[in-house]
Amino acid sequence: MIKTIKNIELNVNDEGYLQDFSQWTKEIGIELAKEHDIELTDKHWEVINYIQEQVAANKPLSIRGIKKSGVIDIKQFYALFPGGPLKVSTKIAGVPKPKSCI
Q: DSSP for 14-56?
């Protein structure tokens, strides 16, 4: 599927996840966050950067892994990314949906 954000055509899957991370930019991340009524703060960016680093290192993502990361506590993670924090945060980060997400 094609999704257009800021006049840029993005390849996304049927759930809206980017198919090609090279298409991701901070501006795209900001626009994806707006779709979830999220205004990105420094803490959001810290989590997004952590997620992207984990994916780049081929490390699996999970709620438990985020909790153990020391980047953010679980309560804050749920508050920053409501409606399924791992699904929402990975979509904004431009990475594939984690296998641990239903």
A: TTS-BS-GGG--HHHHHHHHHTTT----HHHHHHHHHHHHHHH
